[in-house]
Amino acid sequence: MVFDFQEELKKLPHKPGVYIMHDKSDAIIYVGKAKDLYNRVRSYFRANIGRGPWIDRMVSLISYFEYIVTDSELESLVLENNLIKEHRPKYNTLLVDDKTYPYIKVTAEDYPRVVFSREIKKDKSRYFGPYTSAGAVKDTIELINKLYKLRNCNNKVKYAEKTTDRPCLNYHIGQCLAPCQGSVTREEYAAAVEQALEFLNGNYTPIISKLEKDMTEASQALDFERAATLRDLLGSVKQVAQKQKIENSDGEDRDIIGLSHKGEDAVVQVFFVRGGKMIGREHFSLKTSEESNEKDILDSFIKQYYAGTPFIPKEIYLPCELTDMGLIEEWLSDRRGSKAHIITPKIGQKHKLVSLASSNAQLILEKDKERLKREEGRTIGAVKEIEELIGLNGIVRMEAFDISNISGFENVGSMVVFERGKPKKSDYRKFKIKTVAGPDDYACMKEVLTRRFTHGIEEQKEMKQSGESTDYGSFTKFPDLLLMDGGRGQVNIALKVLEELGLNIPVCGMVKDDNHRTRGLYYNNVELPIDTHSEGFKLITRVQDEAHRFAIEFHRSLRSKDQVRSVLDNIPGVGPARRKALMKYFENIEQIKTADVEKLAEVPEIPRNVAEDIYSFFHGDVIK
């Protein structure tokens, strides 16, 4: 479906966030952050206003865009950085290290210090951040040290030890408790550190109130210089006070799940946090009943989603508890191989993360409801139209096959899979024809189908014998409908193969007109006309085009020099050394194909019996 830029631009929210530009192959070519997504993203699609050739080139390649809403511009900065590092878009300036944002570090010493850091180490220290302003972080550290009189020297101060002969200047001006002199007990210093940690954990109200009071008093006393200093310090504290929810210093893997639902429509948003950093997100549209509540929807989603994904994170954040929380947690732990936790935070930073995911889900549901319905129409709705046309029910998986010839000496086949109207590329397969020489499409199709279903039958037997419930591969599942690229001839070939293997699978032919355009379906010996403007017809065309495209790509890949040479590997007696000798003696593969036995035997590394095998391989003759 063509991405309607004008329509999608209208749906952009006036909120901070990150926008992601994709090209026609779905690759991410640019990631940016915005204080106002509506204004920023729209600016790319205005008339050229001197942006420069680099940006103009990027804009010309945009096929569609998506976005993630955040609570603040600071959060969008951190998220932008994580996504750039994860996807390395072509049109972004790529950073070479992780020292991008500053952190506040509380050291793990006998008498801890609050210091500035640009990296996180596994040294038992506590880290807060990341923040976007190094100046604000330094101001805040200075303020904390002044308020709580924490030491900022590099001396190694131990409990109950006097480590210096005299205290430093900070002690004399009342800005350090001087644990180096034993001037403060361990408990008193620990209490000061706890107050600093409370501040860093988000309790900014007492500090901000004090600074605002002092600033007002200085202003009323006409001490404007001090008032300006307090104003700047207050601004730094407020800037640091904007908690960064996108990144966490614990380095854990977690999925953060939010939900929004209305009537029969629901959207689940999943934020993927890996190694403590949010690296991406995905949303899932669900159809549910109007009576379903949040718990029911999430319960169904968790079971379906994590049954099909290969990676189970250590933690999963949800907006509410599940009905079978303990049982599902046990199942996830078993799949993961170690303990997996389902967490339903009620307050604090974790709760804000879930709320952020839910707000993004709500935005998608509200803004993209029309698009989701169109998407459903062109996928599930299109499948239903095909079901009605041919009189079947319950079509989920469709498979289509195509045959291509390569330079007259090799045939290939392709298999594409569509589930619920969408391509399932992980189940696509390629076939190099083994038993057919020359352009015989019917014989090639018979071989491909026989190999595909024979393999599937064998896999199903192995599954049954082993007692495993998971699929071995894409051949294990059989299609609910087989689509053949052609009419009666191709359909009859498929039906014959299925009959020989004892399988009962409906087969349709995708019939083309004289201009090689799909005109209808051939089913049960009858050609069924189809409305060329319907979604069902468009889906059939997409399936047919995809099977053809996949075969052509395989066709082209085998034309490369290395792949063409590899045809010699199929000849008995020709290994890497003899292949290399043949290609060195002859200029190209065509000369090898046209050479007689005597000419082939002139190659020093090729015995006469191998020369005869080579000749027979290309000519189909038996040398006696």
Description of the structure:
The protein starts with a helix and ends in a 5-residue tail after the last helix. Helix 5 (134-148) packs across helix 9, helix 8 (205-220) runs antiparallel to helix 9 and helix 12 crosses helix 13. With 624 residues, the chain is an alpha+beta fold. A hairpin with a 7-residue loop joins strand 4 and strand 5 (114-117). The protein folds into five domains: 5-87, GIY-YIG endonuclease (3-Layer(aba) Sandwich); 103-240, no CATH class; 261-368, Nucleotidyltransferase, domain 5; 382-553, 2-Layer Sandwich (Nucleotidyltransferase, domain 5); 561-619, DNA polymerase, domain 1. 44% of the residues lie in helices and 18% in strands. It has 22 helices and 19 strands. The strands form four sheets. Strands 12, 13, 14, 15, 16, 17, 18 and 19 form an eight-stranded mixed β-sheet that branches. A five-stranded mixed β-sheet has the order 9-8-7-10-11.
In short:
The chain is α+β, with helices and mostly antiparallel strands and 624 residues long. It contains 22 helices and 19 strands. The protein has five domains: 5-87, GIY-YIG endonuclease (3-Layer(aba) Sandwich); 103-240, no CATH class; 261-368, Nucleotidyltransferase, domain 5; 382-553, UvrC, RNAse H endonuclease domain (Nucleotidyltransferase, domain 5, 2-Layer Sandwich), CATH 3.30.420; 561-619, 5' to 3' exonuclease, C-terminal subdomain (DNA polymerase, domain 1), CATH 1.10.150.
